[in-house]
Amino acid sequence: MCLPWNTARNAWEVLNIISKEKLERLYKKYESRKYVHPDPLEFLYAYDDLNDREIAGLTASSLAYGRVAQILKSVSYVLDIMGPSPHAFLQNASRAFLRERFEGFRYRFAGGDNLAAMLSGAKQVIEQHGSLYECFLRGLKKNDETILPALSFFASELTRKENPGHLVPLPERGSACKRMNLFLRWMVRTDAVDPGGWEEISPSKLIVPLDVHMHKICFKLGLTARKQANMRTALEITSAFKKLAPDDPVRYDFALTRLGIRDDADPNDLFNL
Q1: Given this model, what pLDDT does residue 272 score?
Q2: What's the gap between Cα 146 and its chain centre?
Q3: Separation of alpha carbons 152 and 161, rounded Å
Q4: Cα separations (Å) of 226 from 30, 156, 174, 218, 223?
Q5: What is the CATH number of domain 1-30+208-273?
Q6: Per-residue pLDDT for 123 more than 90?
Q7: Cβ(172)–Cβ(217) under 8 Å?
Q8: Helix or strand or coil: residue 173?
Q9: By its UniProt entry, which Pfam families does this protein fall under (predicted)?
């Protein structure tokens, strides 16, 4: 993707050029479900029950890498097996049953064993804490500046007795945890696009879901000079966005990522709106 701007000298210069007003116009233009497809977020809209939505969200976000057509195909395959209530499916599923049901699953680096391990870990978390939400809340302290400590706790609980491999990244290893931060954006924020449900977590603590595309945009904007899309970079970019939206630094993530994944979205919109 060819972006229409040069790298600025520092974040303050960028924040003067890319004003809050322009980002707000971009947000309002793309804040609509008609711009969601193709995005695994679309699967969450089928679940009104929060217990089902969080399991569907964990599943969809864990597979959100690679070519989008294959992401949607793989997520659809898994959710179809779990049926109308992923929560009820897990309640009645043993570890052996999960391995059997997903034996034929394969998506890039993830096989059926990885997927079964993640879902088994989710079931164990639900049995111990009551829900994925309650587990995450137990790791979150009131004075935490970001959700990072809670994310570390959540990931450790999901992997306590299971090894889902890369499907559940561990923040302490330096990963940007893009897919997990994407899941949290979906579950914490509530607007026309993000369905929310985890209401006791403040959006102000969220971290930008940083992938190659988002890193490229933010690097060219001068919001970071770091070359690696890791957790340190994600926190630096989040801090820059907090200068514009302190209560919701991930507010513009959906709109900005439309500029690279949809044919009907123009990167020049960031300047021309």
Answers
A1: 61
A2: 15
A3: 15
A4: 28, 27, 14, 10, 9
A5: 1.10.1670
A6: yes
A7: no
A8: helix
A9: DUF2400
